[in-house]
Amino acid sequence: MKLNDETIKQIQSADGSAREVARQLWVSADSVIKYRKQLSEALAQKKESKEEKDARLKSELVKTYSPEELRDILNHLQVNTSKSIEKIINDRWHLKFALLGDTHIGNKQSAKKELDDFYKKAWEAWVDAFIHCWDLVDWSGHVFKWQMYELENVGYDEQLKTVVNDYPYYGDVKTYMLGGNHDESFLKENWANIIKNIANLRDDIIDMWFYDARIKLNGVDINAHHWWKSQAYAKSYHMQKLIENIDPRDQPDIFASWHRHDALYASYRNIHSFLVWSFLKQNLLAKRFNLGTVIWWRIVEVNLKDDWSSDIEMKFIEY
Predict the structure, then answer these.
(1) Which of 296, 103, 287 is nearest to 205 (CA)?
(2) Sign of the C-alpha dihedral, residues 104, 110, 116, 118?
(3) What are phi and psi of 14, to 5 degrees?
(4) pTM (predicted TM-score)
(5) Largest CB tally within 10 Å, which of 38, 61, 134, 221?
(6) Which domains, ranges and CATH numbers included, belong to the chain?
């Protein structure tokens, strides 16, 4: 029987046992018990402190979800939160930056000498910033079955230490780092955000979270996005589809994407678009998935105009 609001209030305010109240109001004893319980819980929630409420909600989560489900929920919240930053480094409307990605530090085939040379040349060219797009490290789990045999630095501690000690350092020029699937794997399996912890130990590295970030430097808006699918029939296909989904009112000046260790530049919908190349040489993973294995780098210089269009110049070198 469905009770109206007035009857529910009478049940909650009436004295006596559930059976007596039920007889007086011509309702079932179960209804009396149900609505008295609701009132009791509401009063308890009003009185509880923030700490008590947090503890109660955590207890309810644990009862509702398994540890694996909770881990997946928290990982999703951690990973799917796009981070943005806006900063003036030098001249407004002008930015000179170095774009790189997929260094896979920890893998035997990571191009460390080329990476050092790239940073040195870019610094000597007076870049304002380095933007590192995903897969800083190589993880040590099972991104692919034989991965363990290709590592020289195994495990979270070793890969973190290698980056902190050996990654190129030019303290006056910051490196903005966005995490990819290899970096995320430490978070999924070990609850460890390796890029955030590296950034805590290096004053030149800025943590930009995972998979998607907006980096606005000197007024130049850059959207970095880690794509997570296999190669399409055309190299530019996925990049074009991603750009088509960007709100026209929120278009960046630069769009940088990819996951497949290959390089491309295109202008699409008035956005300068890049597939970001890698610093990983030929290995079993590259052979298995037909990834690009040429080491490339670019220095990109952007000038914004009064009409919101932009000029772009690029220096491109292949090792």
Answers:
(1) 103
(2) negative
(3) -75, 145
(4) 0.73
(5) 134
(6) 5-69 (no CATH), 80-318 (3.60.21.10)
